[in-house]
């Protein structure tokens, strides 16, 4: 059984479009995250939710809006996509908030043309 | 620069050799973790070492932590081709930030 799943795995779209990435975890974890991994493999946290409450919101353009309908789901909606948004986006979860072991999804490779 | 920086950026060894990767960080930490990322996949947690621990083992993995030097090392013994991956250190900073900060990783290539 997949612990942390993301859809879609690949997303190719044009500049200016709006797109969403979905994430679900079946681990019963309280905390979920979105990370962006750039072409140099650097992994940067974007958002963190704990029991549906936003607890970390790094310096991310407000074109990015996370939504957590319940603690098992954390979706990422991106408006007005730009070339610089091309990256791999990872969802992750941890049992509770804080510096605990994190479980990662397989990633969504977003390509903006 | 980043909280966690791995060294070297890339490492190529022969199967059976040991691989050592280092991580340096800047601020005090609660714990440090190592993750592996196979090409095109998500990160997988390998090991967590707390700030009051100096060494930890898990199978062929050995992690050391030197808080006075703000550094950690990951040793993979008797490497296998399947160990080919990128390895990241991540720190839980003692700032109440409630999140991990990842380095940029070491790309390990194990030649069969």
Give helix and strand order of chain B, one letter per element, not per position. Answer: EEEEEEEEEEE
Structural class of chain B: mainly beta
Q: What does the radius of gyration of chain A come to?
A: 13 Å
Would you tell me the overall average pLDDT of chain A? 93
Beta-strand percentage range of chain A: over 45%
Q: Summarize the main sheet of chain B.
A: 6 strands, mixed
Q: Poorly predicted ranges of chain B (pLDDT <50, ≥5 residues)?
A: none
What pair of chains forms the biggest interface? A-B, 25 and 28 residues
What is the number of beta strands of chain A? 11
Mean pLDDT over the full residue set of chain B? 93
Helix content of chain A: under 10%
**How many angstroms separate the termini of chain A?**
34 Å
Q: What share of residues are in beta strands of chain B?
A: over 45%
What is the number of helices of chain A? 0
Offer a quick outline of the entry.
The complex is a heterodimer of chains A (113) and B (112). Chain A is 0% helix and 56% strand. With 113 residues, chain A is mostly beta strands.
Q: How would you describe this structure to a colleague?
A:
The complex is a heterodimer of chains A (113) and B (112). With 113 residues, chain A is an all-beta fold. Chain A is 0% helix and 56% strand. The radius of gyration of chain A is 13 Å and the shape is globular. Chain B has strands at residues 5-7, 10-14, 19-24, 29-37, 43-50, 55-58, 61-66, 71-76, 85-93, 100-102, 106-111. In chain B, strands 2, 4, 5, 9, 10 and 11 form a six-stranded mixed beta sheet that branches. In chain B, strands 1-3-8-7-6 form a five-stranded antiparallel beta sheet, with no helix packed on it. In chain B, strand 4 and strand 5 form a beta hairpin. The mean pLDDT of chain B is 93. The A-B interface holds A 4, 33, 35, 40-45, 48, 55-56, 90, 92, 97-107 and B 2, 30-31, 33, 35, 37, 40-45, 48, 86, 88, 90-93, 97-102, 104-105, 107.
